[in-house]
Amino acid sequence: MSSSKRYVIVTPFTKADVLAGICKIQGLDVWIVPSKQGAMVVHDLPVPVFDDWDISELLGGSAKPADDEQSEEPAADTPTLSADDHEGVAKALARLSRAGVILLTSELGEDVGHEEGVSGLVTALVYDSNGTASDTPAGLIVATGEDILEDLLLGHKDPEKVAGAIRSGEIDTTAIERLAERGPDTPLPPRRPRRFFGKDSS
């Protein structure tokens, strides 16, 4: 049996490169996929693998990892926002826009229980500009969205194979970082005069 977990955040940002730059500055290594509805953040979440069956799985808890898989305490300088924190990422991006964002999460498994083939669950949350989340019907969001949204959620397509997709962790944000480091009194470079109908503007 194989399983996967992925989230897609639909944003109102029209330019994928701008959203990729925002994610890079936030320390996020995620895929940014362009779409007509707005650029989307796509990231695969780690799926826990249990070597031995544990009663806590049946009771809804989490099994205790093996001794050699115990996670260490994060370092003090570790970024507070992780790409695996899908709710935290959605909340941070929602606060950058008046329209907010939509977070969709899919948990899929193959040949689960008595079900043959791929089955699973897709959930959706709407985050407003204050970062407050509210439930929304995932089926409605997927049905009214573009085909690429469904393909990404159901694993029919990998984000790196979508035309125009950008991996935020691999882009160069030197220019953006320089602008961010400018003080309020730092003069901007002179701007060339714009031309209207072949004449310089006065």
How would you describe what is shown here?
The chain is an alpha+beta fold. It has one domain (3-56, 79-200). Helices cover 23% and strands 23% of the residues. It contains six helices and nine strands; from the N terminus they run βαββααβββααβαββ. The chain has helices spanning 16-25, 55-59, 86-94, 138-144, 147-153, 174-181; strands spanning 3-10, 31-33, 40-45, 101-110, 118-127, 133-135, 166-167, 195-196, 199-200. Strands 6-5-4-1-3-2-7 form a seven-stranded antiparallel sheet. A two-stranded antiparallel ribbon has the order 8-9. The longest helix is centred in the first third of the chain and has 10 residues, at 16-25. Residues 61-84, 178-202 are annotated as: Disordered.
The helix-strand sequence is EHEEHHEEEHHEHEE
Give the proportion of residues in helices: 10-25%
Distance between the termini: 70 Å
- Into which percentage range does the β-strand content fall? 15-25%
For the sheet with most strands, the description reads: 7 strands, antiparallel
Q: Which structural category do the helix and sheet elements fall into?
A: alpha+beta
Q: What does the radius of gyration come to?
A: 21 Å
Shape: globular
Number of strands: 9
Instruction: Give the overall pLDDT as a whole number.
Output: 79
Poorly predicted runs: none
Order of strands, main sheet, comes to 6-5-4-1-3-2-7
What is the number of independent domains? 1
- Counting DSSP H or I runs of 4 or more residues, the number of helices is 6
